[in-house]
Structure formats: C-alpha cells, structure tokens
Amino acid sequence: MKFSILRKALMALAVLLCTLQLNMLNAAEPVIPLATTLKEEIKIPSLDIEKTIVASENKGDNKVISLNKIKHEEEMGEKPQDPKASMLFWTQLALLLVIIYFGIKYGGVALGMLGGLGVTLLVFVFGAIPAKPPIEVMLIILAVATTSATLEATGALGLIVKFAEKILRKNPSFVVFLAPMSTFFLTMLVGTGHAVYPLLPVIYDVSIKKGIRPERPMAVAAIASQLGITASPISAAAAALVGMFATAGLGVSLIDILKITIPSCFIGLLLASIWSIKRGKDLENDSEFQAKIADPEQRKYIFGEMQSNELETNTKSGRALTFFLLGILAIVILAVFPEKLLPLDGEGKPLRMSVVLQFVMFAVGAIILFVTNISAKKISDTKVFNAGMVAVIMIFGIAWMSESVIENNKPYILYLISDIVREHPWTFAIAMFCVSAFLKSQAAVLLVMIPLGISLGIPVHTLIACIPASYAYFFFCFYPSDLAAINFDRSGTTHAGTYLVNHSMMIPGMIAVWAATGIGFLLVNFL
C-alpha cells in the first residue's frame, strides 16, 4: 500500500514537471536576455570598473554592452533572475530529491540507475544539457577497490584486522577510543570505508564482555570509518580534490589537503569518542537490556561467542601487505616531489596525481598478483570489490544527475547564495553538509560542490577547511557501515531510531564532522 501511494506520488510529480515545462515553452513572450534591456552603463563593484557593451537594437536604440560584463554577471549571479529560472531550479531539485528517496528505498546500485533516470527526465522533459559524468572519480574507485580487493583475497586485509583486534582485546577498557581510531586508520590505509566491516563484530565482542555499552564504541567507530576517507592519500575523494584544484589552476597538492584533513578529522573523532564515554545508560542500569538478558536464550545470543573472522591469512599475506604499503608510500612520495619524479604532460606540467593514482594502484595490484599467485576470480569475489563496484554505479548515476541540476541552474544558484557566501565563506560548509546528507559519497559531494565554490570565488584555504563537511550521509542512517554497526550489535543498544534522525550515529557524527571542520578552519591559518 505504501509503495502504491509513493508510486502515484512520483507519477503525479512527473505530470506536474511536464506541465510546468510546457507552460514555460508556451509562454506568450520569449525570455529576453538582460543584456538587451539595459539602457545605461552599470558599475560592477566587485571589479571596481565600468564596463559597457553592446548589444541589441531595442526599439531603435543601439546600446553597446560588454560581453565580459554579461559573462561576469551570469557567473556571479548578480543580475535579477527571471521567475521561470526559480521555478525550473526548485522543480528540478524536487525531482532530484524524489530520485534520491527511491534510490535509498531500493538501495545498492538502484541509486545509480535512478540517477540515470533522472538525467533522462532532465534532458527530455526540461531540455537540459547533461553535465559530464564523474569519469575520473569512477576510475579511481575502480583502481583502488581492485587493489584493496586483491589485498583482501590474499589475506593481507585479515592481517590488518587481526592486528587491530589484538590491540582492542589487550585494552578493552579503552575500546571507546581504540575502536574509532582503528576504523579511521584502516580507512586511511586502504582508501575505502568498506574494509572495516570485519572489525565491527570484534568491537562488539570486546565491549559487551567488558560490560561496556556497545553503542558507545560501535556508533563512533562507524562514523570514524567514513571520516577517514578524506584523510586517505589513495581515496577517490582526495584524488578528485587534487584534480579539480589542478584544473582550476589553484596549485593545491595532495599534501596541502592531507596536512589539514588528517589532523582535523582525527581530532574530530577524538572529541566524538570523549562524548561517547558516558552516552546512554550503563548496562547494569538499563532496564530494557536487563529485561532482554533475563531470557536465557537472549542472554546466550547477546553474550555468545562471535564467529571467527572470515578474513583468512596465509604465508603470502605478509608479502602482499608489504607491497601494498610500499605502493602507498610511493604515492605519497610522488605527491611531495611531482616536479622531480613525474614526466611532464603536453602543457609542460607534471602528470596530475589523480591520473598517477590510477595506474600506480593498478601496478601495485598487479605486483601483488605476481608475488602471491592469487586467483583473479578470488579477487572479484571479495566483499571489498563488490562494494567498490556498487559505489562506482551509485556515483555514476546520482552524481551525474546532481551535477546536471547544478550546471543547468548555476546562474540562479549563484544568485541565491553568492552574497551570503562572500560575506560568510564558512557557510559553504553548511551547504556542503546539506548536499552530503543525500549523496552517499564524499567524492560525489566534492565533485558537485568544489567547482561551485571556485565559481563563487571562495578562497582556496576556506574550501580546504570545508572538506570534512562533505561527510553527512550518517544523517539519515542508511549507509552500509551504519547499518552494519546496528546489525552487529546483538544487545540492541546501537539503534536506527523511530523518528528517522534519532539514531545512534547522529550525535557522534555531528560532533566529529563539525569539530573537524572548525579545526580545519583554524589549521589553514597556520599550515
């Protein structure tokens, strides 16, 4: 019944979109560019000069208006906007939200496919020009996911997890701090948050047997696993940032980004961990938990032994891990000394790190393949590989649609937010956070928002400080790592919430992200 109602609502929205578009096309008067109606010279305060141009013969008056002026006004959103532009933007935004809603409802690759449906509607209903799909980010995810999957197939990922498990079991009293630190550094190491799932049952087992409320380390560990993405030198998000800044000619290197994101995100997760120490009731004072363990079957289930870790290790695992770590070290060295170590492209500049990351990660995977003689089929059967491919499809569709909406409404969007962002650049972090609440990828969010920030003239150091705010998809608690933390908590203390937003990840997520963003703003003034 609920699905039927939602389907009818979507169909009604589609009819409304078509009607609005037809009304716009059949308007009595054509839309006349602002340039053709200008009667006099206008000062542009931001340029502090007067520009005049030409243009059109409106009622016999020949006025010359400058093409540069029109371009400046269109890009910076300084001209009055046609009401139709407003209607188009808000209607397309509503369509995007509907697409995202159903993508979340079906999950997995559905978000990508529905994003493709959204692009189709934008083109054929609104006559929009589709933006360029995020090909480079998709290629980076493919390369990193494939190499990380090779690491899992050889058992090397199991070595890392077992090392973290050993630390947790030796220091159970500090699990609220050690658990998020483990997931954070694991994500930093492998470039994806999908590698942390084997650690979650360990975190639960350590905490429940120590009598610590599992929600305390589980929720913040799930948050930390995603917070580490922009702090990883091999993540798609970091590579996308380097590529976008290079395209804009801003001269921002990978090291410039990491020296802000690593300390700010780490301090953010520490603050979230401190808050988590006393969150919720202690288990002995939790009447709901005590009622559960009063049942012998429930008690056995809650305190029972966890299954042994699924990630097997063998004699080849150490070799695979060694070459993987050497590959990461090579990437960092190349990022620090690009002029000395990388060949020059056609413009006389060193190869972009976003491209270097792709072939170096594939090379590392190939070397691991040779030295371990692992089956290629085993690599494609791993959980990391599957999660990476799903992520590629999701980004392909939904990031493509989001970028298309922004590109086709860019003058109006700039008109809406340009004044407040120029006066208060930090508000761009809020905008990025709001976008991320609906997109399940930090790379996708950055691809959409960073070019917009550059168009608005936001200082580079401000854009870098805002990077941690690209993680907000914990807000509605539908991301796999959040759901995994809930499912692995047999005690039920880590919960999804009955009102959509009152879930276990909300407060530690808000603390970690906004503390990291605030610290980022402080660090960019000193580093």
From TrEMBL:
Entry annotated with the keyword Cell membrane: yes
Location within or outside the cell: Cell inner membrane
Main location as per UniProt: membrane
N-terminal signal peptide: 1-27
One Pfam family hit: DcuA_DcuB
Highest taxon in the source lineage: Bacteria
Keywords: Cell inner membrane, Cell membrane, Membrane, Signal, Transmembrane, Transmembrane helix, Transport
Membrane spanning stretches: 87-104, 111-131, 137-161, 173-197, 320-338, 350-372, 384-406, 426-450, 462-481, 501-524
Protein family according to the UniProt entry: Belongs to the DcuA/DcuB transporter (TC 2.A.13.1) family.
Name by which UniProt lists this protein: Anaerobic C4-dicarboxylate transporter
Organism: Chryseobacterium oryctis
